[in-house]
Amino acid sequence: MSFLELKDIRKSYRMNKSEFPVLKGISLEFDRGEFVSILGESGGGKTTLMNIIGGLDAQYEGDVLLNGQSLRQASTKQLDTYRRQTIGFIFQNFNLISHLSILDNVMVSLQMTKLSRKEQRDRATDLLDQVGLKEHRHKHPNQLSGGQKQRVAIARALASDPDIIIADEPTGALDSQNTKEILALMDDIAASGKLVICVTHSQEVADHGTRIVHMADGVIDHDTALKDPFPVKDGAEMPAKHLGFGATVRMALQHMRYNLGRNLLIIFGASIGIFSVILMLGLGKGVKGYINHEIYSQIKPTAVQVAQKTDSENVKKLEIKDADVQRLKKLSHVKKVQLGFFTQGAQVQSNGTTSTAQMVQTVSDQLLAKSVKKGTRPATGEVMLGKAFAQKFNKKHPYRLIGKKVKVSLTAMDQHHLPVVMTKTLKVSGVSDGSGGQVQTNLQTIKNMYQSKNLTFRANFATVMIDSLSNVTKVQDKIRAMKNSDGKAQYQLTGAGAIVSTLNTYIQLAFYVLAAIAGISLLVSAIMIIVVLYISVSERTKEIGILRALGVRKRDVKNLFLSEAFFLGLFSSILALVFTELVALFANNIANKYIGYAIVSVTGNYLVFGIVVSVVISLIAALAPSSRAAKLDPIEALAYE
Ligand SMILES: Nc1ncnc2c1ncn2[C@@H]1O[C@H](COP(=O)(O)OP(=O)(O)OP(=O)(O)O)[C@@H](O)[C@H]1O
């Protein structure tokens, strides 16, 4: 049984619906230790036959038997393994990968063996030493002469210790001196017990081998033995594996480094999209925080003012009764409920000056201690004036009013709906910043004023104190959801605190919209990555062909492009994070100076979000180009110029 047997191989190419037969029944037997030259006219089908033997072409009739085993039914994966393990290719135009060093070109084949990384490097260095190029191993292919390139290709073909070396016009691009050197190397290969099949036009090359096969018109017309084959040496096979994930990632990084300038530009472009999205999110959070900070510096955030939800001005309908207080108290997280009263228009008279305050309100626990600028909160029989209002009585020294008596007049309606003026002399207990209204008293003082005119006092709001800030929204939502007997909302929230959550929703919404608009630049980044990867696939078509010829699987080719996209996404997002942090630092410095608050609040979550979005978008963008790369036909890819 021969080592390699071709049985009646037939192959036609289909052009414009007509078939052109190229191989018309080729039957040959080869053994190890042979150096077979295939001669024939140009266009006679020699390369076509080599592609079939080399497992690059599975579209033929007949059969190829290796050690008696048919390749006919081999799957794509099995053919990949066959090329990896059994075949070493040497091409006329060398087909080295330009962005890899000489050593790494040889390593591509070795990375598909089970040797350790160190063994791989040692073997690659040894092979380069054998072909006289050890000193040049760190150079790139474009820094070598043609003869040197072909020697690298030979070292690469031998790397995985294959049994068959297929050389397609290996000396076609070389001068006579280099031709001699390459032939000597190929002689050595055959002498080491491998089968060398060499397609050539040169009689000099053909005469060098052990056998000449001549093709004409799609068949073999001469098969001449020149010498005895070299003796076969038995050696252990080098176990093969597919290109590991680590090797794929390394190759992707090597390619990115080779095209550093272009990749840096892409990374910069893509980072702008991520940067704008993270910045908008951070700015949204910062602005929201700032507004809340401003509101809560005026009022206690855990106190919520509740009033009856009605359009009516009827004091009875507006009244907050004991039953309401009990109802509100029952809500979980509610610590305390205080009745309150407010009314519009109060006349305050001091030393002959009368001024009208727009609003009078009772103090509650909602009042922050720091709101009392000077003096104390009003006790019964006392009043506290807002600073601006107090200045109406003493422009320069508003605090001098403290301790003085003022006359306060309020208007109420009696049961006949007639206005009744209630007047009481109250002592000024303190001056506030005005956040609780221009005039503040306590509940008992107001009650006393009503009693003095025999009028019924009705509280018209309640202050609900909540146990912690984190429960405020929860309680607010529950209060809003409470229904009256008609099934309508019973209460409404009033005061500054009531608008906080609505305001927050609007701010949040506004910045989500801004972030979404910024997201358009993300889309542009994604399109840019798609275009760049498509260009990259076109540019690297030949490289893909070479890798496939070396036995790299479709999936590995796909992973190669996906890895590049992954790194583009990762590096873009890292750059974006650096930009964001710098801009945040700058903006917050200025904001701290003017408003005493860091306006850009970039949290760890946003940073992680930025990285994930960037990587995911890049990977999605890479899906189509990388599948296209994986699907390229290796023969067409190799022929790509
Ligand atoms: N993909 C293809 N589609 C159509 N025809 C093809 C294709 N590849 C090769 N051919 C044709 O098949 C014939 C054999 O081509 P092949 O490359 O095998 O010849 P060759 O003997 O290696 O030629 P040369 O010595 O010039 O390299 C040629 O006529 C060529 O035009």
TrEMBL record:
It comes from Levilactobacillus namurensis DSM 19117. GO terms for cellular component: membrane protein complex; plasma membrane. Keywords: Amino-acid transport, ATP-binding, Cell inner membrane, Cell membrane, Membrane, Nucleotide-binding, Transmembrane, Transmembrane helix, Transport. This is Phosphonate-transporting ATPase. It is found in: Cell inner membrane. GO terms for molecular function: ATP binding; ATP hydrolysis activity; transmembrane transporter activity. The chain crosses the membrane at residues 264-283, 509-538, 559-586, 606-624. Residues 4-242 form the ABC transporter domain. The keyword Coiled coil does not apply. Its main location: membrane. Belongs to the ABC transporter superfamily. Macrolide exporter (TC 3.A.1.122) family. PANTHER family: CELL DIVISION ATP-BINDING PROTEIN FTSE, LIPOPROTEIN-RELEASING SYSTEM ATP-BINDING PROTEIN LOLD. InterPro entries: AAA+_ATPase (IPR003593), ABC3_permease_C (IPR003838), ABC_transporter-like_ATP-bd (IPR003439), ABC_transporter-like_CS (IPR017871), MacB-like_ATP-bd (IPR017911), MacB_PCD (IPR025857), P-loop_NTPase (IPR027417). It is a multi-pass membrane protein. The keyword Hydrolase does not apply. GO terms for biological process: amino acid transport.
